[in-house]
């Protein structure tokens, strides 16, 4: 019978791994249960619905009392038995329904149920469904063995449903990532604000299934107000009606609390029912017919550029999933980046247009005043002298007949010194050109009104300065008797315009081209390369551990380093190449018209050579290394965004190994998925929001069956994703440096908990805590641990720190120094995962080690694999000869435990004795109930 059962379980496992449809797999589970429990008349698997009920999915028989299985719904309010199973996630068997009022009385009566077994379909605390077994009048009389058998099959169903759920999640993530790539691509091809907003409206509407999308944009000129700008062309409203309604009610950030909160917090806000919320204007909502509202800020470089509003007009409350809202936010963020450039250009055009209009109007006024000058009267002379612009007159011979004080001042002459001189001292040109039909001076064109914006005048010392001027004829009785020149010094304005242009295209710290200019040059290079069939390359560079310099020395030192690094990069490229600072410590290089990789490698070699010399930062000598990624046209992309993205991807691969590494992009290299990026962002908030928890796994003396210690194990209880395994977030914490603060938190919490147990009278056992490489690189590790022990008045002998072999050999001198300090204090040191590193065994006698922990990879197949058995036996013998304690990790079976005990290794840790437990469960099960039993997994 057991052999048949194992065969069925193996067959179901095979079905799960062959990726059949979920229904087919669950039908096999139902068949296996029904054939195993012969007294059972009905088996049904019920899956959860959105409203909290459970609906029939597969089962036997398919029809009961004229109802198909999918017509049967389990209501938690009526079926208290099902509710209890859901709440506890434990199976419940009722031998006699007449003696228990928890089952749904309607089902008991309708199907004449005498006995009933309900089991949860769950995996790692996540509930996927329910399984019901019941009879039609004759009790099932199930034994514990039969119930355990059913639980085994139900566990297989949980694995199948979990796999199906995970597959659906991955498919949705891929779709989301592809959609964001489509958004980025489409927005990069937009040349107008209307195009950008249309793309944004389309994708936001697609994600949220709502076409009523509008945007309020920041007016860059007038009082920085947010004004209604555009409406989706697929909206239920017309844009004209939408605009007029806003004008009628003067809706904006000055009178709407919702606007104000989104602008202030720079975060999206969802309001399912606007009439249950005081922030939006109810009057405006009624006028538009709005029932629900979702408002998202357009944020670029920390500044709010606008607000995207999505309105729900149906009576049902607006409901969007967290994933949909995050995806919509990502679309809006991408739009904001593109929109910022267009708004900047529009702002410049508006400034120029207003400035031009202002100057034109002023010049027309001056021209009108000058045309009335026939004789120099006292009154008109006062007006002339008070004018801020320079004004001087010429006779028909080109000699200066009069000039106002402003002219003398700007041109560097004393009063009346210019009178009688030729116009050439000012124009330095040919008088013959002055009187041509279109008024040409020095070959510069003037328009029909005599307005010139592109010329220079000369001072007395022969220095020049830029001017704008107007030439007007002086007429007397219909004949021209001379000209009047009105001019203005525009030096300051041109300097401002040049400065604006500079900051638009150059990095102010390094004087290198910025991201915008780099993209423009790369785009031009791609166009040329396509036309001439040439190759080009993009290099993406990132300084390793630059944050450490900023944190330790200060940002001013970091700025000096970036400047010096930029200068060294300049020496490694030719004049036709382009270096750009992308932001922070990231740089990029564009190499046009290359023959192959050898030219790129030559640049990389030059960069690495340049970094061999230290950077002198105000007396501090700093060595820095760089990670480089390279993409090439056309093999790695045919457009700007793709080449930069792929070079960035290759650079991140280089950062996986520290120290002047370079990688050329290859397909499939991109490992920084959308999911991992979200996980990294969430990890930054996890510690401050109390999402990290510690579980404790006992370390057992197999001879006495007593707990001799425990290991503190870090877990992440994500608010939406649930428990996230350490192998998913620990590498991210290591990479970002968060492991230092997280590791310190773990030591502090573990010591605090252990001291609490000691004070409560529980056994005086020790706790083991893992230390990371990054923690050992911190100079104050010993001081921090000593401070924590003192804070909780915990004796050092009760703390054991664990580190791996590779950590020991990475920096032998500093590691040995820290280990000796810890040992001198009384802290025990264990080598974790022993046997898996690449170090010499010499450190065992040279380093202050107390315990060796045999890696679980050797324990797993210790019974079947002679090699693992031999290695394990050798480690045990080695530890005994060196007078070291030895603990076997990952002990899961009694056979493994007996094998280790037969080799005199009695200290063990693993599922054979207990899973990792919360602090509350550890105290209850280990200290109070003493549930340590080999073979009984807790």
Provide a descriptive summary of the structure in words.
This protein is α+β, with helices and mostly antiparallel strands. It has 31 helices and 34 strands. The strands form 7 sheets. Strands 26-27-29-30-31-32-33-34 form an 8-stranded mixed barrel, surrounded by 4 helices. A 6-stranded antiparallel β-sheet has the order 5-2-1-8-7-6. The protein has a 5-stranded antiparallel β-sheet with strand order 10-9-13-12-11, with helices on both faces. The longest helix has 50 residues. It is globular and about 125 Å long.
Question: In whole angstroms, how far apart are the ends?
Answer: 27 Å
> Largest sheet at a glance?
8 strands, mixed, barrel
Number of helices: 31
Radius of gyration: 39 Å
The tally of beta strands, per DSSP, is: 34
List keywords for this structure.
single chain, alpha+beta, 938 residues, 6-stranded antiparallel β-sheet
Compose a concise summary of this entry.
The protein has 938 residues and is α+β, with helices and mostly antiparallel strands.
Detail the topology: elements first, then pairings.
Layout: H1 2-17, H2 22-36, E1 42-48, E2 54-60, E3 63-64, E4 67-68, E5 73-74, H3 80-88, E6 92-94, H4 105-111, E7 116-123, E8 126-134, H5 144-188, H6 193-208, E9 213-218, E10 226-231, H7 239-249, H8 257-265, E11 269-271, H9 282-288, E12 292-300, E13 303-312, H10 322-371, H11 378-386, E14 390-395, E15 400-403, H12 405-411, H13 424-427, E16 451-458, E17 464-476, E18 479-489, H14 491-505, H15 515-532, E19 535-543, H16 546-553, H17 555-570, E20 578-583, E21 586-594, H18 597-610, E22 615-617, E23 620-622, E24 626-633, H19 640-655, E25 662-664, H20 674-686, E26 692-701, E27 706-718, E28 722-724, H21 726-736, H22 738-759, E29 766-770, H23 773-777, H24 781-792, E30 799-804, H25 805-810, H26 812-825, E31 828-834, H27 843-846, E32 851-854, H28 856-860, H29 866-881, E33 885-888, H30 894-902, E34 907-908, H31 919-928
Parallel strand pairs: 24-25, 27-29, 29-30, 30-31, 31-32, 32-33, 33-34
Antiparallel strand pairs: 1-2, 1-8, 2-5, 3-4, 6-7, 7-8, 9-10, 9-13, 11-12, 12-13, 14-15, 14-18, 16-17, 17-18, 19-21, 19-24, 20-21, 22-23, 26-27, 26-34, 27-28
